[in-house]
Write a structure and sequence with these properties.
By secondary structure, the chain is mainly α. The protein has a domain at about 20-60. It is about 60% helix and about 0% strand. It is built from four helices and no strands. Helix 2 runs antiparallel to helix 3. The chain is elongated. The model has no long low-confidence stretch (mean pLDDT about 90). It comes from Romboutsia maritimum. This is Recombinase family protein.
Length: about 60
């Protein structure tokens, strides 16, 4: 494993990106125009991924 890490090979699952419309859906969700469940459906994300992306987005602000 050390040789692979030295070569820059990454382990684990790939990061699921929320999509181009994440910010738009996030704003509607925060303004109570959408429920979290509907936001997840629009973004095609599971709940744990949705809330993880929300946390990442809010930490960038």
């Amino acid at each position: 494993m050390k040789a692979a890490i030295d070569k820059g090979i990454k382990f684990g699952r790939r990061k699921i990106e929320p999509g181009d419309n994440f910010e738009e859906v996030y704003i509607k969700w925060k303004n109570n125009e959408l429920t979290a469940v509907n936001a997840m459906k629009l973004l095609d994300l599971k709940s744990n991924t949705f809330y993880r992306r929300v946390k990442e987005y809010e930490s960038k602000k």
